[in-house]
């Protein structure tokens, strides 16, 4: 196999968010040269971590890929996480937007013009039930001549202390993509590994007159299972039928764009609780310590994290797809 392309895998990140995909791809040997996201807070965080990247803060539909190519040059790899909110089950019974789903076809538009050797498309697994999903795959294979591999990967199998299943569509113009496999020695962390249980965070009593009844019910369920002397997490906005709580000796459940997890610990004065904080959620997503979240409110940062791709997963994907032996 040729080796010259390994030295400079020029990469475009579409729907880039704060840069989770780019972070992993860079660790896997790629050179990030351009990124697109409509949200200024995403741009500010991304550029803080990738200062040499050309960032486009526009709706993707308003960007001409030919003009982008003129400005940034050749692209070897496109990373893309099209809008997922109208695919995901987290939407509940909310109204779905077909315009949101159709952003996936902008990936086709960019690939048609830029003709990168590789594409990596990430989304929630429910994208596969979209009525136009088969059409989307057909365009990749028949019009754009990509060999593709669809995989559902769970971040917990790639050293990430979180259970997070996502669909990845791997595309290569020259050969069938190899199966992405976690290293046999790599084990996912546990929720307890991300907890910073020290005085820097403020706790409040679990039981107060203002505490929601449902929250107290979830806590009581946990205490009945674990006893009164073990800490645990209350999980908000869950639909997995697990009683609204989880033990610390398992990977964190999926980090979302909402403030979802409360840490509860016993004390001499009764149980205390607080919400998980940004550094803990950053660790749960597998971001390296060096990755900065310096912009926006706490809510903004949680949104960016919940909307991101776990870097260790993308690192393995890029190495597998391109054959790169980039640094860690």
End-to-end separation in angstroms reads 23 Å
Largest sheet: 7 strands, mixed
Give the strand order, joined by hyphens, for the main sheet: 3-2-1-4-5-7-6
Spell out the helices and strands N to C.
EHEHEHEHHEHEEEHEEEEHHH
* Overall average pLDDT: 91
Count of helix runs: 10
Contiguous uncertain segments of 5+ residues: 1-6, 86-92
Shape: elongated
Number of strands: 12
Rg value? 21 Å
Task: List the SSEs and their pairings.
Layout: E1 9-14, H1 20-27, E2 30-36, H2 40-49, E3 54-56, H3 65-72, E4 77-80, H4 98-101, H5 104-114, E5 118-123, H6 133-143, E6 147-154, E7 165-172, E8 204-205, H7 213-226, E9 232-235, E10 245-246, E11 261-265, E12 272-275, H8 278-285, H9 298-306, H10 311-322
Parallel strand pairs: 1-2, 1-4, 2-3, 4-5
Antiparallel strand pairs: 5-7, 6-7, 8-12, 9-10, 9-11, 11-12
Q: Can you give a write-up of this model?
A:
29% of the residues lie in helices and 18% in strands. The chain has ten helices and twelve strands. The chain has helices spanning 20-27, 40-49, 65-72, 98-101, 104-114, 133-143, 213-226, 278-285, 298-306, 311-322; strands at residues 9-14, 30-36, 54-56, 77-80, 118-123, 147-154, 165-172, 204-205, 232-235, 245-246, 261-265, 272-275. The strands form two sheets. The chain has a seven-stranded mixed β-sheet, with helices on both faces. It has a five-stranded antiparallel β-sheet with strand order 8-12-11-9-10. The longest helix is centred in the C-terminal third of the chain and has 14 residues, at 213-226.
């Amino acid at each position: 196999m040729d080796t010259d392309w390994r030295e400079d895998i020029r990469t475009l990140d579409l729907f880039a968010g704060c840069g989770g995909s780019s972070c992993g791809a860079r660790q896997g040997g790629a050179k990030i040269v351009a990124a697109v996201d409509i949200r200024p807070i995403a741009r500010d965080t991304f550029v803080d971590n990738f200062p040499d990247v050309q960032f486009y803060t526009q709706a993707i539909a308003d960007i001409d890929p030919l003009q982008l190519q003129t400005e940034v040059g050749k692209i070897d790899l496109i990373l893309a996480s099209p809008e997922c909110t109208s695919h995901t089950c987290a939407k509940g019974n909310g109204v779905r937007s077909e315009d949101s789903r159709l952003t996936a076809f902008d990936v086709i538009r960019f690939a048609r013009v830029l003709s990168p050797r590789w594409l990596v498309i990430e989304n929630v697994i429910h994208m596969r039930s979209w009525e136009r999903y088969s059409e989307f795959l057909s365009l990749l294979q028949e019009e754009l001549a990509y060999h593709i591999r669809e995989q559902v990967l769970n971040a917990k199998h790639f050293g990430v202390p979180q259970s997070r299943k996502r669909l990845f569509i791997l595309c290569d113009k020259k050969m069938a993509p190899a199966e992405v496999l976690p290293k046999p020695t790599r084990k996912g962390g546990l929720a307890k590994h991300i907890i910073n249980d020290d005085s820097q965070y403020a706790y409040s009593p679990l039981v107060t007159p203002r505490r929601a009844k449902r929250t107290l019910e979830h806590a009581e369920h946990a205490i009945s299972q674990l006893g009164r002397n073990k800490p645990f997490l209350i999980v908000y906005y869950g639909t997995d039928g697990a009683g609204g709580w989880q033990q610390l000796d398992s990977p964190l459940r999926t980090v979302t764009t909402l403030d979802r997890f409360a840490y509860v610990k016993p004390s001499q004065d009764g149980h205390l609780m607080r919400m998980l904080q940004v550094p803990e959620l950053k660790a749960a997503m597998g971001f390296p310590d060096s990755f900065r979240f310096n912009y926006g409110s706490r809510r903004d940062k949680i949104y960016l994290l919940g909307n991101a791709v776990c870097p260790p997963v993308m690192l393995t994907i890029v190495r597998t797809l391109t054959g790169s032996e980039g640094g860690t």
